């Protein structure tokens, strides 16, 4: 039984982010890969959409320039033949402020011939923004209409 | 071939939210259901964790008191025997301000004997918060360390 592409991809991504070794991940990106991390691109320039291997490698390098992964817990997982989805709780360090950040993301990945063709990531961004600025953003609660 | 529980659940949930008809969804909740929508519970009191059928029905009622679903596009989907994950783009109306809101969520659901035992939802919450307050929350971008 062949190892699922998700595991190779996960190892390659973390190696890229933590060790700045991009060779493994470069070998796993389809030339036409589609990539999106949904969130405020004005706050996190490495969020947003990227198309193609070169653009995705560049954004992974930007992520590596900004964070280190300390640990991650895969809380939910679904594996298909050429697809995977998981919900992951990350413990990171933001390098510019040397500050710990924890966040929860959900991703959907598709592979073809062992290479990533699509990655879509939803992030609990408000929590992330509050941790990044370092203080709570106070807002009135949404009214509970009764 | 039996219809996947996700489709029944999805119809029942939208019927509960838009028509305030809770019977269908009540019949699909396991007594010990675990439920979590990750996000700022001080802004959205119907976010957070709930345990058990009664608590989940109550939070669905709160959601129904606050929003209507206009449309949703299921952008990604994975189905397992008793599980499902999808990424969904919703167009909603916030009822208190009669304001349109669009947001992207990812959910992971588990079923047993056709009943929901677990639901975990990640929301692009920063985007949601900005739309709810009605103006952009300005913040300095995270530095791109080079």
Describe this entry's structure for a reader:
- The structure is a homodimer of 146-residue chains.
- Chain A is of the alpha+beta class.
- Chain A is built from four helices and six strands; from the N terminus they run ααββαββββα.
- In chain A, strands 2-1-6-5-4-3 form a six-stranded mixed beta sheet.
- In chain A, β4 (83-94) and β5 (99-112) form a beta hairpin.
- The radius of gyration of chain A is 16 Å and the shape is globular.
- The mean pLDDT of chain A is 89.
- At the A-B interface, α3, β3, β4, β5 and β6 of A face α3, β3, β4, β5 and β6 of B.
Which helices and strands, and how do they pair?
The structure is a homodimer of 146-residue chains.
Chain A: H1 5-19, H2 23-26, E1 29-38, E2 48-51, H3 53-66, E3 67-79, E4 83-94, E5 99-112, E6 115-123, H4 125-133
Described by its quaternary structure, the protein is homodimer
- Widest sheet, order of strands of chain A: 2-1-6-5-4-3
Helix content of chain A: 25-40%
The strand count of chain A comes to 6
Strand content of chain A: 35-45%
Alpha plus pi helix count of chain A: 4
Structural class of chain A: alpha+beta
Report, as a whole number of angstroms, the end-to-end distance of chain A. Answer: 55 Å
Q: Greatest contact pair? A: A-B, 48 and 48 residues
Query: What's the overall geometry of chain A?
Result: globular
For the largest beta-sheet of chain A, the strand count, sense and barrel status come to:
6 strands, mixed
Helices and strands of chain A, in order, run as HHEEHEEEEH
The low-confidence parts of chain A are none
């Amino acid at each position: 039984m062949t190892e699922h592409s998700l595991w190779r991809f996960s190892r390659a991504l973390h190696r890229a982010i933590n060790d700045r070794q991009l060779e493994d991940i470069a070998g796993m990106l389809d030339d036409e890969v589609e990539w999106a991390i949904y969130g405020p691109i004005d706050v996190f320039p490495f969020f947003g959409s990227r198309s193609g291997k070169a653009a995705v490698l560049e954004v992974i390098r930007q992520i590596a320039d900004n964070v280190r992964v300390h640990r991650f817990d895969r809380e939910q997982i679904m594996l298909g033949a050429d697809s995977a989805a998981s919900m992951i709780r990350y413990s990171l360090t933001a390098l510019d402020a040397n500050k710990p950040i924890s966040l929860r993301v959900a991703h959907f990945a598709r592979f073809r011939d062992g290479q990533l063709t699509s990655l879509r990531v939803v992030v609990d961004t408000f929590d992330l923004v509050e941790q990044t600025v370092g203080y709570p953003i106070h807002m009135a609660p949404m009214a509970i209409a009764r």
